[in-house]
Write a structure and sequence with these properties.
With about 270 residues, the protein is of the alpha/beta class. It folds into two domains: about 30-170 and about 205-265, Spore Coat Polysaccharide Biosynthesis Protein SpsA, Chain A (Alpha-Beta Complex), CATH 3.90.550; about 170-205, no CATH class. The chain is about 35% helix and about 15% strand. It has eight helices and eleven strands. It has helices at about 1-20, 20-25, 60-70, 85-95, 115-130, 145-160, 220-225, 250-265; strands at about 35-40, 55, 60, 75-80, 135, 165-170, 180-185, 185-190, 205-210, 215, 235-240. The strands form three sheets. Strands 1, 4, 5, 6, 9, 10 and 11 form a seven-stranded mixed sheet that branches. A hairpin with a 2-residue loop joins strand 7 (about 180-185) and strand 8. The longest helix has 18 residues, at about 1-20.
């Protein structure tokens, strides 16, 4: 009898492993949570023209993010948000959904990503009556982010009950506030009120958002806090290599070297 019960329970156990959010799924075992991946990819950029289509190690930045999204076991849908027809076509070739083109008003250099997500979710609700349980923001400028990072972020969000999970990288000790100096009349002096700490082991462990490469957030947080980060925000640490964020041409060269080096070791 015990063996029969174990066999009957196995499909549900495998389902929970595949889609994560174990604690929340248990409240409604017949329903799989909707986890929406959003890839923001506007056409304009200053540091690198057409940056989201720029190539690193033989593939565009958009393609590297599409690869990670498709390999994820947690995402149930992936949408690219763009104002650009060429990027929209490239996204569709990569099997990313582009249900509509982003308004030009939401594609400026200073457009906050919050407004982009709110507009996307509003339009999906109006046109499809679709409301995801979790939104995962995936910036194309993080080509070394893997599917594993996406899945771990979603699992942490679900298992902890947090509002948000953001990927971070540890700040090198020589960049901590106690090590930073500022120029004053041709001289350097300690920056701010941070005490001078010279020993590495005495410095606080600090983290910085790494793009961020991954942000997993509940849609209710976007409405309640008018931001991506709720009061309960957890972190997913990534290595410095995984955290490369493409902003300048040199970053593309570094990303190419890191990807090729990674692929040679696998």
């Amino acid at each position: 009898m015990v063996m029969v019960r174990l066999v009957l329970a196995l499909p549900m156990f495998l389902l929970l492993l595949q889609y994560g959010c174990r604690r929340e799924l248990l409240t409604d075992p017949d329903r799989i949570m909707d986890v929406l991946g959003v890839v923001p990819a506007r056409g304009g950029s200053k540091g690198i023209p057409r940056k989201n289509l720029a190539v690193a190690a033989g593939r565009s930045l958009l393609a590297w993010t599409a690869d990670a999204a498709h390999a994820s076991n947690r995402l149930t849908r992936v949408i690219a948000s763009t104002d650009d027809a060429e990027i929209a076509q490239a996204a569709r070739v990569l099997d990313l959904e582009v249900p509509f083109i982003r308004p030009i008003a939401l594609a400026a250099d200073d457009t906050p990503i919050l407004a982009v997500l709110q507009d996307l979710l509003s339009r999906l609700a109006d046109t499809e009556q679709y409301e995801p349980d979790i939104v995962v923001l995936l910036q194309p400028t993080s080509p070394l982010r893997r599917a594993d990072h996406i899945d771990r972020a979603v699992d942490l969000l679900c298992d902890s009950g947090a509002d948000t999970v953001v990927s971070v990288v540890r700040v090198p000790h020589n960049f901590s506030p106690s090590s930073i100096l500022q120029e004053t009349e041709g001289r350097v002096v300690p920056w701010g009120d941070a005490p001078t700490v010279t020993r590495r082991q005495d410095k606080a462990t600090l983290y910085a958002r790494n793009g961020p490469a991954v942000v997993a957030v509940r849609p209710s947080v976007l409405k309640k806090y008018e931001g991506l980060y709720g009061r309960d925000t957890r972190f997913l640490e990534m290595t410095r290599a995984e955290s490369i964020d493409i902003d300048e041409p040199w970053d593309l060269e570094l990303a190419t070297w890191l990807i090729e080096r990674r692929d040679m070791s696998t």
